[in-house]
Design a protein that fits this description.
CATH class of the largest domain: Alpha Beta
CATH superfamily of the largest domain: ATP-grasp fold, B domain
Distance between the termini: 65 Å
Number of helices: 19
Strand order of the largest sheet: 23-22-21-24-20-25-26-27-28
Number of domains: 5
Structural class: alpha+beta
CATH architecture of the largest domain: 2-Layer Sandwich
Radius of gyration: 30 Å
CATH topology of the largest domain: D-amino Acid Aminotransferase, Chain A, domain 1
Strand content: 15-25%
Amino acid sequence: MKDFITDKFYFYNGPNTYLDRRALVFNLCLAQGPRVEFYEPHVLKQFPALEGEIPERVADLFAQVLVQVLKMDIDLFVNAYDVSRDGEDYVIAVEYLDKNMTEDAVYLVRDWFRTMTAEREFDFQGEFLKLQEDFDKTLYGGPTIYSLIEAGLKRGIPVNFLFEENQFQWGYGRKQIRGRSTTLHVDSIKDTEFTMFKDMVKDFLLMCGFPTPIGKNCFTEKEIVAEAEELGYPVVVKPLAGHKGQGVTTGITSPDEAIAAFKKILDAVGEEGDSDFDGALVEQQIYGTDHRLLAVAGKFAAGLERVPAYVDGDGTETIEALIEKENATVIRLDNARSPLCKIKIDDDLTEYLKLQNLTIDYVPQADERVYLRRVANISAGGVSINVTDKVHPKNVKMVEDLAGFFNVTCLGIDVLAEDISKPWDEGNFGIIEINAGPGVFMHLAPAIGESIDVPGQIIESYFPRPECSRIPIITGNQLTLGFCNLLYDHLREINPEIGFGSLTEEGVYFNGAFFCKNAAHDQNVKILLRNPKLDLAVVNHTKDNILDYGTFHEGADVVILEQPDYAAEMLERDLLPGGCLMEVLEDKIRIPRGEDEEAETYDYPSPEDKDEVLAKAVGPELKALLGKSQAVRP
């Protein structure tokens, strides 16, 4: 008996006739099997949050469970679904993030329902865990990038993945920002690049009078030892091109230790197969706790204290067992939403234990805290503590003064401070590194303390309101190139420098000139809205375009329908609040108004006059629409 057959998979990259957002659509064939009540206890055992939400039809339950799976047990921002009929089959549309993972999720739910029907055992948790692990390897599995995507989606900002460029785009046309993680296309390439050169950054900080340890970049053992002795022990040795605390050795008190730290950096370079050695920095040792101070758009945004990975003894278990126990906690799931990473037992950990005359077999006494690493980076298992409210105003000013020198969206400033609540010029305090494009999820989900919505601050620094992410979009189902040209002429009378784009049967046009025509309609829409000089777009969607590709863009300010059919109805469905609907009739253009207002009409004497009259009818809407096209940022 055929049951729970899934086929006809189709992905839409944007709004479509099923959902007002991207969707996977597939058919589900169900045999005459058990009713919902049969599946309910099995489903509630895995997803107790569905208590009281169980629908009447099995197909709806299937879709509901699929959404829960797509949330990956970490409450990903995936919510929408729709269930309709296609003859004897059901058609399920579900919102998605990653295409491959969504299809795999369908197969998982399908297999689970089949085994429930057959009353066979199924390791749902084991299969679900594999799916989660696979999701963590996708573009959306990175904590920082996912948090930025979600921040956009929750604020009504259009977010699209540009496959050809391997980056994301928030917003449309002139309003857009693009990038991966917190490095965006509007950031200065030279400023971002400069922060990677730790030796030059150190010289810059010293020149400006910012607090930073004195040091020098060295290339030989002889240089390393000479610089360490000139600075005076203890010193720190770290790779010039390192990141996330990798290869950093602190508390060096002798030439032998300095040479050993240098050799460790050289070995790491050899393992990575990189023949270019950039050098190793030797710096004065500064004592204090590691902190990340963050600036967004030049303003202080958050402060985080980072403590090296540690375990607390119980008098019975070894350090190795305590690490295993700690890694099993929810806070260290090491996925797109967990605050902390796993603690890895590696050479750095065992060497640091050795310095304390300990091994992983040591049994700490009850309440004895054993630190496992020199560095406090979260990626190395460190613990994050929100200290935003504790940062002294003078330190806040220092962050903003330093950020003012760089044209980057985010600047992470790593400092060692004995007490972050004291001014930087009192006591031990030093900037040890600055980073353009730093990770920010740790501020959103610290291990200890309140969440600071840094991803939201980043998105709102460009898009204070949802409309700030949009350019005016005019859509229709029978718009012509002639209409677009007439409209462009009218627009140039208002603003000669306007960036105008259109997509009609002839292809994509920018400022009246042909640009390209892809076979796929959604690709044409994507390249139109990708243009960073675009102020206003006109997009024609035929019935076939809508059925095959959807619209790609989210919503429109003006929708012009001529002889509307069921496919074009979605254009009216997605008309933005306050938008204008126009109906092209046999001899006139009709604009419905409010309930207490009469419809506005424009007559045209012959079909040849239609485009000209239509352009005239759109005219009164243009001034308000163009007011929305101001630049996002000065």
